[in-house]
Amino acid sequence: MNKTAPPYSRILQGDFSESALAAMLCSTSRSELERLYAGAYQLKLKHRGPHVYFRGLIEISNICKKNCLYCGIRSGNRNVIRYELTDEQVLEEARFALHAGYGSVVLQGGERTDRGFTDRITRLLKEIKGLRKEGSDFSLGITLSLGEQTPQVYRDWYQAGATRYLLRVEASNRALYEKIHPGGAEKELHAYENRVQGIRDLKEAGFRVGTGVMIGLPFQTPEDLARDLLFFKEMQVDMVGMGPYIPHGETPLGKLYRTTVNEDSGALFCLPDHRKLDISLNMVALLRHLMPHINIAATTALQVLAPDGRERALMAGANIIMPNITDVSAKGNYNLYEGKPGLQDDAAATKYQLEKNLEKLGIPVGWDEWGDKICIFVQNS
Ligand code: 5AD
Ligand code: SF4
């Protein structure tokens, strides 16, 4: 392949080598980027249709046994008010999603593996699957995002009605993964191989699996990001959610950011927000070229870099949005990063705003659908 050709021409010729992907990721040519985004949007239209699908996000708890160096709700952060939604709160939010036409929900929370917790999730799944709108047989699709579990727990949760699972690999490069997770006595709990094995175990249990990475991490290079894209392809995942890394002041990486940020260094970590946003959108658009059929989320963290960050990701090939439907009383404590948007907005206000923004862009919403090819209408039992 011609390595001196403009980066998007290489992509169009099917050159998905690490060097071609990295060159496109780093491009600052507005015309090249516009061509990349327009191409990704066309591929999305062709392979996934015009719709965006909503998955209502319920942040069930910020209690976590892990201590990831980037995350605001890590176990080592004592300045967090820990909470756990009650069963009734979770069901109320799921009912909201059902009646709002969202079609599916995501239960997300910190990682816990105790039996009390895993059994409670199994119970909740069955209850959510039992919810119906009057006169309809449609039941909500359920995605889980509850960290690493044993193969048996994955099977139990699948049996109880969840069909999708999000387990971000966070960084597919093992050395980078280890730099952003604790070592020493906590190393075992944060082992890279368990993360990757988790993705395999989930597939084995029957789940449609989503993964993803953070973009702009300390120590991360454009080549790492290029290899992340190739990792998604190699793992044949069904969904990817990736967003910019946003420093949180009460974490080791957030403190590192404060003390070392130097915009002249050229490191991804130190780039200004608008460049981090471009690179995040480039990742979305390149992934749509590499894996045209999959689901790609326009993630909330994009909104921290620009108010219309998620909508721009939809115009660059993403097809999923996860509107937050967590009760306002709790969601302020689910702070993975600083500057989380929409903390004062309740689920109805969030829906209203999103609908307005999408209407302006002419993007239709796939109401009352799971947003995949196995949209099953089950009988009331
Ligand atoms: N910035 C951006 N994303 C973060 N996550 C955790 N901490 C941060 C941060 N500081 C992401 C991780 C995790 C997901 C739930 O949130 O990728 O998998
Ligand atoms: Fe826990 Fe997930 Fe945060 Fe890690 S990223 S500390 S596993 S909530």
**Helical segment count:** 15
Distance between the termini: 58 Å
What share of the residues lie within helices? 40-55%
Number of strands: 9
Q: What small ligands are held by the chains?
A: 5'-deoxyadenosine, iron/sulfur cluster
In terms of per-residue confidence, which ranges show pLDDT below 50 for 5 or more consecutive residues?
A: 374-381
Radius of gyration: 20 Å
For the biggest sheet, the summary is:
9 strands, parallel
Helix and strand pattern? HHHEHEHEHEHHEEHEHHEHHEHH
Strand content: 5-15%
Structural class: alpha/beta
- Average residue-wise pLDDT: 95
Basic shape: globular
Structural account:
α2 packs across α9 (222-235) and α2 packs antiparallel against α11 (273-290). This protein has helices at residues 7-12, 18-26, 30-48, 87-100, 115-129, 151-159, 174-179, 192-204, 222-235, 252-260, 273-290, 301-305, 309-314, 328-331, 347-361; strands at residues 53-61, 104-109, 141-145, 164-166, 208-211, 214-215, 239-244, 295-298, 320-321. It is an alpha/beta fold and 381 residues long. Strands 1, 2, 3, 4, 5, 6, 7, 8 and 9 form a 9-stranded parallel β-sheet that branches. The structure holds 5'-deoxyadenosine and iron/sulfur cluster.
